[in-house]
Amino acid sequence: MQLCKSEASNLNLSLYSPHIISASHPALRNVEVIHTISLYTHRASLPALASACRAFESPALDVLWKDLESAEPLVKCLPTDLFGIDQGDVVLQKPIDDKMWDTLSRYTSRVHSIAVKQTSDPLAIIEHLGLIMLSCPSTPASLFPKLRSLVWHGGGTRSAAEFLRMAFVPSLLYLDMQFFFSFLRIPLSSFVSSDLMSSSPEHGLEISSCNRRLVL
């Protein structure tokens, strides 16, 4: 069954009517229709669509989390009081419990691509992300089992290294890295060759760039 964009949009709007939802519209039993509506829904409306009806929860979340243009959603899905500042450094105020890990894994398991860029992800977000990854009790492949593409144009800090360690998974097919830092703290070339290549031996990994840009 094929739906054009206008048909999908019209049906999508009708789903916000409680009458339609409670009446179990026949379209809600068609997986292809549900998937098409989710694809054509504006990104900002996908959380509402996922909450509007159980049939749409998984398809809408799949679309919402498939391609991340920032690392911020990975941090924002956890409680805001989880992080604090101690002597100028970002710290965890309390351990990340099983419920929080389940919430995070529920979303990270849907991610196919991540693009982290210095212009869109401030240092604070990267520090938060590094703490999360450092505390992760799971293996990288279980946290990002579907990750195919990773773009990292940002700082070469310890926090960045912790995230990259968890993002270098066997499913990764495309890698584009450019590091910006005032001085080198981590031997990035050996870090990439040992961790990344050993995690992806069974297929060809396309590396677009792996540059170290010194900003003095």
What overall geometry do the principal axes of the alpha carbons give?
Answer: globular
Count, helices? 11
Number of strands: 7
Strand order of the largest sheet: 1-4-5-6-7
Low-confidence stretches: 1-23, 182-191, 197-203, 212-216
The average pLDDT value, as a whole number, equals: 76
Q: Tell me about the largest β-sheet.
A: 5 strands, parallel
* Proportion in β-strands: 15-25%
**What is the string of helix and strand elements?**
HHHHHEHEEHEHHEHEHE
The level of helicity is: 40-55%
Q: How large is the radius of gyration?
A: 20 Å
> Could you give the distance between the termini?
58 Å
Q: Structural class per helix/strand content?
A: alpha/beta
Short synopsis of the structure:
The chain has helices at residues 5-14, 18-22, 31-40, 46-52, 54-66, 72-76, 98-108, 123-135, 140-143, 158-167, 188-199; strands at residues 67-68, 83-86, 89-92, 113-117, 149-155, 174-181, 206-214.
Provide keyphrases for this structure.
alpha/beta; two-stranded antiparallel sheet; disordered N terminus; 11 helices; five-stranded parallel sheet
Description:
With 216 residues, the protein is α/β, with parallel strands linked by helices. The chain has helices at residues 5-14, 18-22, 31-40, 46-52, 54-66, 72-76, 98-108, 123-135, 140-143, 158-167, 188-199, and strands at residues 67-68, 83-86, 89-92, 113-117, 149-155, 174-181, 206-214. Strands 1-4-5-6-7 form a five-stranded parallel β-sheet. Helix 1 crosses helix 3 and helix 4 (46-52) packs antiparallel against helix 5 (54-66). The chain is globular. 27% of the residues are buried.
